[in-house]
Amino acid sequence: LVRLPESTGGDSRDAFHLLAEGLHRENLTAMLALESTFADPAAARAPEEFVADTIVRLSVEPVQRAVLRSLEVVKSRGHEYALGRHSFRITNGQGLEVYRRVQAPRSLQRERGAAFDPTSRVATGIPGLDGLVNGGYFVASTTLVVGISGAGKSVMALQFIAEGARRGEKSLMVTLDEPPAQVLRNAHSIGIDLQSAIDRGLVHLWYEPPQEFEIDRHFAQIEAIVEDFKPRRAVIDSLSTYGSSLGAAERSFRDFFHAIVALMKEHQVTAVYNHENPEMLGMSSMMGEFKVSSLVDNIILMNWVELGDTFRHALTVAKMRAMPTSRTTHECEITNGQGMKVLPRPIRAALPVVPFAGYLGLISRAPERRSTVGPEVP
Which of 50, 148, 210, 340 is deepest in the core (most CB within 10 A)? Predict the structure, then answer.
């Protein structure tokens, strides 16, 4: 569509109005293309915007060193439409594909989805862990496993998936950091034949590298897999990569996490999300700059404990929504061919429970035992 310049004496609004009337008279549905930057103030006053029933704006914007194509429905007379900018791609053999923005509201069923079954449990696949989480996770609950690199998060994820396959349950594993061949190798090293579970249709292993990440398209693909494959379990490895790709300070990361949690709950998928915390010894914050801990049901902390000249694995159940937990730190072992197990922690009668009054420095997170428990000195 070419706009008539004012210097020719033509009235572009009248001309476009006549064109629209002619198309309507012939009962034709027309799509007209107008090239404009929309940064020009004159473009914002384009007469076509007042006459047309629907306006769809396509744009290209730089994202770091890449570019992102987006589509926005500016106007659609007589229709309800999704606001905001949605991503799209132009692909060979298919043309233009639009991906709804991840922040856009979905169905009421998704927003209301929750782990509503208070009796069923989903086994973790980690020997010794089910007893710490009251027999397993709630169905459709969200579990966050937080720890430094090498603490055992991916091992726990693989055993969670393998336990589902052993029970005949379908599982989805989304990996961003490790390609499928590496995931299969890692699983084999701890005695898990993940390829066999994939061949039997019990595991869907999906990998997408985080370079030039398009979050709307990525979420649409996960949504399609969940709706088609219908998993009972899911693992996302890891949230840290999403944060580095999207920018943790931006709202897009939290919006994505909120959307994927709602998706899993709607389809009653019990999901585990791995997150790398860079702090090696102790944690001043479970999520650091990623403010999403309020959205999850359970949080398991994985860390190192330095004893002498050896680092040993430690596990703490920090949060279990709607279930009691002792928040006691337990030692773990990871062995070749067997994976991870939580070691028993016997309670000795010689170590009585001492009340808070028997310690100093509680708020500093480095309490010291008083030599004797006596009345407090003002």
Answer: 340
Q: Are 299 and 144 in contact (CB under 8 A)?
A: yes
| Domain 108-342 of CATH type 3.50.50.60 | no
Task: Give the pair of three-digit tokens for residue 54.
Answer: 């629907």
Contact 94, 73 (CB under 8 A): no
Instruction: Report the relative pairing of strands 339-342 and 359-360 from DSSP bridges.
Output: unpaired
Distance CA 222, CA 215 (A): 11
Neighbours of 78 (CB within 10 A): 6
Q: How far apart are CA 169 and CA 163, in angstroms?
A: 8
| pLDDT surpasses 80 at 371 | no
Q: CB of 237 within 8 A of CB of 176?
A: yes
Question: Which residues 6+ apart lie within 8 Å of 345 measured at CB?
Answer: 328, 330, 331
10 Å Cβ neighbour count for 344? 9
List, for residues 44-88, the tens digit of each pLDDT value. 556 667 778 898 999 988 877 778 899 999 889 988 888 888 999
Residue 58 bridge partners (DSSP): 71
Supply the pTM of this predicted model.
0.81
Question: Which 8-state DSSP code applies to residue 279?
Answer: -
Rounded to whole angstroms, the Cα distance separating 249 from 66 reads 19
| Both structure tokens of 105 | 């509201």
- Is the sign of the CA dihedral 175, 273, 226, 196 positive or negative? positive
**Ranges of CATH 3.40.50.300 domains, the chain:** 6-99, 108-342
End-to-end Cα, the chain, rounded Å: 84
- What are the strands of the beta sheet with 233-237, ordered from one edge? 203-207, 171-175, 233-237, 270-276, 142-147, 298-307, 310-320, 329-335, 339-342
Burial 45-56 (b: 16+ CB within 10 A, else e): ebbbeeebeebe
What is the dotted CATH code of the domain comprising 6-99?
Answer: 3.40.50.300
